[in-house]
Amino acid sequence: MAIFLNENSKIIVQGMTGSEGTKHTARMLASGANVVGGVNARKAGQQVEIGGKTLTVYGTVKEAMAETGANVSVLFVPPKFAKDAVIEAIDAEIELAVVITEGIPVHDSAYFWAHAKAKGNKTRIIGPNCPGVISPGKSNAGIIPADITGPGKIGLVSKSGTLTYQLMYELRDIGISTAVGIGGDPVIGTTHIDALEAFEQDPETSLIVMIGEIGGDAEERAAEFIKANVTKPVVGYVAGFTAPEGKTMGHAGAIVSGSSGTAAAKKEALEAAGVRVGKTPSETAEIARELYKAL
């Protein structure tokens, strides 16, 4: 088992023929992911050789799904075209749309999120501005390096891309069931809570690591959810303990106002829910290792 992505996932890439799309399609294929085609209306019907595999470029997501049975789309589409590309995936009712693109206007993200909801949430959106999702040894949709860990029992959900990679590497002795990079923008499709709920229900996930960062109240809301609904041990880390108050740090969502949104406030909320919180990524990995050994 895994969450959101498994060995049966069939992936198409919107924007596959662009430089980023081509590069990461090759990396996904090399990691064993079943990439079955691409989408680019201007190059419909063409066949391209990527990573030793000949892939067809389709004109629309709907056509690609009909021809290949695809149920996952990874989007490497420039910001100004991203809204239309995500809406196309939603209208085609693909199960999972992984939006890698950074710099999508918040208004556009809010629009396609609302569109997905209006369509009955048939399409799960991960991102935007995220590294994607990987179930090591099964499938990989996005830009997460596949060679830094193997399959295991730890579920990882993170706002930060690079911290996703670091925790995967630090916990490589145990391994990962699924790692989900949800992105740090103010409006995202899949939240910490969505991933926590899925990991709680996944029989192959024994322990959950949750990475947050300063700004907003997503971690506080996740703490409330953990307290009420999660029985598995959860280890947390909040990036930004040394950030000065009132400063915008990194991701667009990381704005601190008063005590809400600070690393200290998030740590307090998580610890009140029974989550052990590390002060550094390495300490977080140590806590996870200690709790895992005690299971």
TrEMBL record:
Q: Where does substrate bind?
A: Y165
Q: Is Ligase a UniProt keyword of this protein?
A: yes
The record, for SMART domains, names: CoA_binding
Q: What domain of life does the UniProt record list for this protein's source?
A: Bacteria
Full protein name: Succinate--CoA ligase [ADP-forming] subunit alpha
Family membership noted in the UniProt record = Belongs to the succinate/malate CoA ligase alpha subunit family.
Q: In which pathway does it act?
A: Carbohydrate metabolism; tricarboxylic acid cycle; succinate from succinyl-CoA (ligase route): step 1/1
Q: Which gene encodes it?
A: sucD
Cellular compartments per GO CC = cytosol; succinate-CoA ligase complex (ADP-forming)
Q: Which NCBIfam families has this protein been placed in?
A: PRK05678.1, sucCoAalpha
